[in-house]
Protein 1
Amino acid sequence: MLSFFKSITFFTRSQKRGIIILLILIGVVLCSEYIIPELLKKDTSEKEQLEQTKAEKECEKFLSSLERDTKHHKSYYYSYGIYTKKPLPILVPFDPNTATESVLCRLGLPEWMVKNILKYRAKGGRFHKASDFKRVYGLTADEYSRLLPYINIKQDTVHKATQLYKPRIEKIKEFKYSLGTTVNLNLADTTELKKIPGIGSGIARLIVNYRQRLGGFYQIEQLDEIHLQSRLLRNWFTIHPESIRRINVNQASIGRLNAHPYINFYQAKAIVEYRRKKGKITSLKPFILYEEFTDNDFKRITPYVCFE
């Protein structure tokens, strides 16, 4: 009897190696169900973190612009996006044909007048004598009298004025929607989202990427989940829940379910195991007693699943 038992349990060296390799392969297959989804999720999360960081910086800049107090004292003026205290004029000799923008501003001339002078020079205009400066649009008689002793026109610069000035290339402002305009949050692409005041490329991509992962938004408050303040954007968006892309829980795999932001791996596994043991799922009620699910989970998941 003992010899018979030994004969049926005896394996050659090559057979033992084959059995070991087979056991390793079985272990890899079993572990891949747990490991691969986590690795894929990790790669996705790193990319999303970069998008999140850029969008948060844009959002902070947007919020600070909204909270800025626009009621300033007359001693302050607006320049290059900020309010600064108006500096005292510095009167120095200058040639209106070659004086730079900063020199003209330091003389006490307003920024809009300086730009008009530079545009006049860029088009070939020039000042041949001091009295020509009096024709500058908006320049008062008192201002002209104050600057007259400091005007020093050199004749050799009269013909070179336009060559010495290189007009600054101004960035074309992006078109923005006016207040009262609304867009469909579930259909707008990044180009349309950027037309909303305060939304740049980073925030637009963040919204679109999160919308794709969700399958669509069913309420504006979901923007808070990607660190955007929905209360500030509420008036710009409309939401049509019927355009949400739903997951069929009777066909989706663990990986497909786990890819959704609201469904973790253990919840996905519970759904697939229940389906395998008890058949077709017709509602989420059977999972009420499962420790993997909370009441808040059911509230968030319900709009994104179907039972076809």
Protein 2
Amino acid sequence: MRLGVFSMPLHRPEKPYALALQEDREMVLLADKLGYGEVWIGEHFTSKAEQIPSAMLFLATLISETSQIRFGTGVVNLPHHHPGIVAGEAAMFDQLSGGRLMLGVGPGGLISDAEFFGETDMGERNRVALEYVNAIQALWAADGPFEITVNGMTLTNKSTHWPRHGLGAIPKPMQQPHPPIAMAMVSARSGAAFVCAERDFIPISANFVSEDDVIAQWQTYAEARDKAGKPADPDVWRLGRNILVTETDQEAQDIIADPDGDFAFYFRYLRSLRQMEDFEAMRDEPNEAMNARLDIPQAIQDCVIAGSAATVLARLTDLADRAGPFGTLLMAGQDWDETGRWPTSMRRLAEEVAPKLSQHVESLKG
């Protein structure tokens, strides 16, 4: 079992943009130093809380400063991009990083991004995302003249293909046939689980759904793999959780109980987005009132594993017993503060929890 980080990233909206970006870079550098195997960075255009409009551009600043960590886009919201640009930029990133790219893709879930790009129909975004990932793979596989029709566009080099001068050639990634492709699973019976199973993509269980939903996601994926006549290898499964390792259990409980603490802020932001129209009149309500209406205590209970190293290990061991073995545990990235609690938590997770958890997960494979 390996460790990774999945970061939207999510910051207090009042935090200066440059400082938020700096902290996100520090998180990746620390993860690399501690031996985390991978980091996934989200992409959004229209939210100050999670404003990295290009995960690849952000991650490219870290290639030369890291030694082993793999870089995942979590995710490129394909309907907001031209597929040819994504194919070219991803191929270049893979070459620059020495083959360390994992391309996470999706339809885009942030409502303000959808409005901004004029793509408010979720079903249509799902359709476009699948067409675009097909086009990206076809572009990477193309050798010679090609003509690819996708979402009403024609991508072609037939009139300008000149091998002697390299003209008309699409950039190719270092990893062949292409970098691993991943999709995030959000609902219990996520459609992404079926796509991942059929297409050999990496399935990622989101950190903001309950453990029961996470278990159901893997079962859905495994059933789809079995139906396709393919084995369901748990090593490919990325399991996301909100994890905080503290010195004592009481310290973690104090953070959880704070109506504007790290976890309350995190889930209040996420849940209010999904119910934005219903809570229009509550935008300026006190945190306690918003938390009650959005059932934030239940979200924290369902999605957060916090406490001393011993407590976190026990909770994660129990989850592994119920879910089965998994390949990578993804710790959700949080907004850093002056206390240093999150860098300390990352270190404790790597040094005090992960070795014993890995032994337990491996024992489940027998």
Protein 3
Amino acid sequence: MMYTFKILILNISFIFALTSIDLSNRMVIDGESNEYELNEFIFLDSLGTLLEYPADSYWGEYNDIKQLKVTWDEAYLYLALDACSYDNNVILFIDIYNDYGINDMSNLNAWQRAFKFYNINPDFFIATWDTNNSPQFWKVQEGGSIQVDLIPNVETYSTYNAGNLNASMEIKIPWEVLYFRTEILMQNNPKIKLVSVITSGDDQGSGPDVAPDNLGGMVNDPIVIDNYAEILIDSDYDNYPDMEVSPQSRTSFFKKPPFEPITLKVNEVIFTGGRKIFSPKDDVIEFELISNRLSEFHVEIFDLDGKFINYAIQNNDLYWQWDGKMQNGEYAPFGIYILHFVAESGELSHKESLVFIK
């Protein structure tokens, strides 16, 4: 018996959609993001490489960000965040202005969460929680970092619902809401930074996943969000969003994913001459830090009761020193002191070192 096999060869190519004057007939804010085309997927490059690992959340696929989608027309910025949230929160942050924005979510008057920002200070965010289909849109008070105001009448919708793996949060933002004063022009702020996060449902809770991927992951203490996608909206600086362009082609990253996040560590503390014991009135103690990531550090000194004593001083690019004095200028009494290493971003290395005053 003879069998005949037919081989079907598929030629898969990107479906292209460009920004244009009016997208209102295509873009529907219903929590179903299937109207977006592939070149509007931000975590996907032009070669089809997925820039957000599937199910890379610390808590698994049921609390995981899948994809960010972006496009715009003359009147609106359209955003969709595909994710699965099971009894948790989802937040999408927008940063436009360099002179203010959120530094530390734990200090906000609303939506407090246990993480800080580095390289980005969001001016707006869209937030919702599992089973709620009406995301809230918030704006940071101009010039500040801890007061946010709820912005009404911005069209949003979410389908996050008890483990729906195909859910999305969508929003349609008028440009005049983002560029809300005549002196804050798009031509002066032509790029928009975006980062998203899933957080636990409790105030001051942290979270399992961030997209684009965080440099240090989401299991550090404290968590520092330090990566973002950046989209060029107005390349000719004419104060209007560019038309007939691919949003994906306008996207860059602080660090392009995908990559494996690396928790910050101080691998080694090298004391000059191997000396960790000194008499401060006659000497200083000097040391070098070897880290797994290129980072600027603060070195904080505590006694064994947890009382802050002083900062070590960085005397060149490699070495720190402490003269044994407390913040009040007096010499610390003899005893054992603990060195804490805190990166400029706010990440805390879990390695500590002891020094001894005799």
Protein 4
Amino acid sequence: MEYQEIIDRKKKIVTSAIKAIPDPIIADVKKRYAQKCKRSVQYFERAKQVIPAGLEHNLGLLHPYPLTMKTASKASIWDIDENEYVDYMMAGGPIILGHKFPQLDEKVIALIENYGPSTGLTCESEILCAEEIAKHMPSVEMVRFLASGTEADMLAVRVARAYTGKKKIIKIAGSYHGWSDQFLLSSDYPGTGNAHASGIPQDSYAHTIELMPNDFEGLYRLFEENRDKDGIAAIIAEPTGGHAGTFPNHPDWNKTLRKVCDEFGALLIFDEVITGFRLALGGGQEYYNVLPDITILGKIITHGYPSCGAVAGSREIMSVCHPGGTHGKKAFTGGTLSANPISTTAGYYSIKYIEEYGAIDKASDYGDRITNKLNELFATRKDLPFFAYNIRSIIHVETACPSGAFLVSKDIDSQLAEQKRRAKAAEDIYMALLDQGVLMLGDCKRMYTCMQHDDASLKKTLNAWENVLSMIPVEG
């Protein structure tokens, strides 16, 4: 689906009345589901006594309660009540070979038996993994490993500032770049600032400049306005658009980011925590044919093994990283478990197996199939504006479209209120799909596929969606 059609269809949803499952029906769904998930309910009650709100994972659904999982295999996942789900969460994106891929697990187990978990010193696997990343990603010559994507985001801007001598960072609204103070700004919905995040002083945003998605005029204006105000060191962006394409990029956006950075002497940072080794072996930069100066990687490197992040780029730019440095510039970073042997062994072999088994193309083929089938199903209900679109193996399903409220409203208070109503409708659909054994990401708006999704996965998913649509009253 082309960019403009996606935008037009999002606008149609957010300018229409919300199409939702009626409250009495969703109440029955939740009651039935609670009977199926008695142990998850019990675990949630226990968790609330020792864990704030009883939930630690942003990917989980707090209301009515989070599931407690027991095991996973291929494209399925099971909770502690033995309920099976077709998994489209894929640990938030890194799983593309499928859960518990035997060849990969064997390599990690062998490493632990031989080496142990970590020594805090160099292991061969970190060199092998860095070499493998540099082999495939066109802009990368050197890699600095960290323990998470958030840490990688933090180091990337530190490197950019050290290298350029400038201070300001442009962040595209609606993008998520970890939870550090300077970046927790409009990370869910464009224009909402830090409305959902307490404990962050406003001064933390002194050198972070927010830009609305695809604002070509605003992009140039910001660079002109900041020429003599400490200057702009970098733009940080997701190559797909925010949250892996929830806010899709205009076809010319990435090329324009590259062009303006070159004109004004800034660096372009691509956050490829989701897109690296999912859109292509060379990441989003290969897929879109636009090369950043700095690449951020995260859990995608290790195929879900904990825990990993990385900053990568040219030899010249990466030379400022600690413990090195150049011309008196040194971007300090730490982390005892950064580049630990478990993560880097998993990273090296997962990339090798993704290439060997053609996992990216297989996952993408299924992504195309399920997107087409969902749109065919939605088309049978002329009264519903629902639709799906995909960027290879990243699928977006728009029903209530809470993320689109900014397209029709500039008033933040009314926008937040509309998003809340629409998020509730989307979460109810998510709940109804869970009840039928289909697990999606968050509030029913994103799916990641792996090479293990098959005809059985597709059939179960479509049957679940068909049942969900039957719960929504027909209008007109």
